Amino acid sequence: MADNKLPASSGDEVDVVLVGAGIMSATLGVLLKELEPSWSQVMFERLDQPAQESSSPWNNAGTGHSALCELNYTPEKNGKVDVTKAKNINEQFQVSRQLWTSLVENGTLTDPKAFINPVDHTTFAQGPDQVAFMRRRFEALEKEPLFRGQELIEDEARFSEYLPLMAEGRDFSKPVSAIRNPNGTDVNFGALTKQYLAALSDKGTEIRYGHEVTGLKRNGSKWIVTVKNTHTKDVRTLVANFVFVGAGGDALPLLQKARINEIRGFGGFPVSGQWLRCTNEEVIAKHDAKVYGKASVGTPPMSVPHLDTRVIDGQRGLLFGPYAGWNMKFLKKGSNLDLIKSLRPANLPSMMGVGVQEMGLTKYLITEVLKNFDARIESLREYVPNANPDDWELIVAGQRVQVIKPMKAPTFGTLEFGTAVINSWDGTIAGLMGASPGASIAPAVMISLIERCFGKHMGKWAPKLKELVPSYGTKLADDPALFDQVWDASQKALKLER
């Protein structure tokens, strides 16, 4: 029986098991170490390195999502631009900046330039209708403290000066405009994850690569965690007081194995992605912004095109996309049986209902899958009119699993494009599913998870959370003076001054 146990530094029982060595598990692990340093932690990662799925810098756009440029966060209703979602997402990203600032100041994070750099966030409009909407959007956001500093660009000369790569060869008889916000950032979530994990390891967290969690079984108020060594195939178990499933697309199957009622009826719809990556340094040097446009009518939010400046390992890069694809894997390095294995009698109605209701998504995916390289270059030319195919290569991005929520009258399930946290009634297990804005708002999401799962500790932990995140319990949009204070501190600590 002893051979069937997985030794941990604290014995066969640990306080916290973290599944997956990506940004979500790493963020939660760091927060819990700050709040309760004495608790033992073990992290399991099925791959041999950290941050190789959604957290990898080439698997996502690296947009520190703060709703500065994403048009789908500012929908127009009855002629009025609704900025509610944009404000909420910006508030959440400010939590990220504050936490990172505190962790740089206390030495947990050692090199902010490795994971965050200033890059303008810019919104791009084409045609009279979009240009008119852009003015309304600018005016609506101009009133909000968290969106200060933006610039509306409608003049051809200024557009050409600011976005030379997008201006070269453009027919300006079709009106264009842009909203520039100089307060945006590019974030390398892979580098951030690695700094988190280095700090956790130094503080006693065991991180086991090449170990896949294959089973979760309740044992009273605890969990029996079954783990397989992917190299030796040895299978062992340990007992955990709390389990967090931050395994990206694999979160749904693992939560299903845990058999918690809260996951009942949930499904997942996998969507793969591709980017065009620029290989010409001269072209890369002509563009310095993350430019988001408007998705075509009838297409989902994931189809929003963007031309992204990246800063990865000290090198500038340029991406355009995403181009969606489809396969049945829940992870980029997963199995083609993932989708089939996730089907349950309880989630089949929701899955089938979404399939019927989301015909626009189905049509979009079929169109995207059928695109060849030349067709993708034509899409790029809406942004870069003089794009030379020889300057670009097609790369595979990360794999997303969009959340399908259980059927609820009058619908038969709903497809969600955001992030969803699922936890058991007693708070002993939780998992995160979904996609954008995901990694950008990981600290806010994990703090909310801590409140939900560790309520009895919050009286003790709240002051520490307030120290780590000065706006904790308040909204910066309602306190411009506090916003100025934390903004200035983060600009300095994260070395974001230009």
TrEMBL record:
This is Probable malate:quinone oxidoreductase. The keyword Flavoprotein applies. The lineage of its organism: Bacteria, Bacillati, Actinomycetota, Actinomycetes, Mycobacteriales. Keywords: FAD, Flavoprotein, Oxidoreductase, Tricarboxylic acid cycle. Pathway: Carbohydrate metabolism; tricarboxylic acid cycle; oxaloacetate from (S)-malate (quinone route): step 1/1. GO terms for biological process: tricarboxylic acid cycle. Its EC number is 1.1.5.4. GO terms for molecular function: (S)-2-hydroxyglutarate dehydrogenase activity; L-malate dehydrogenase (quinone) activity.
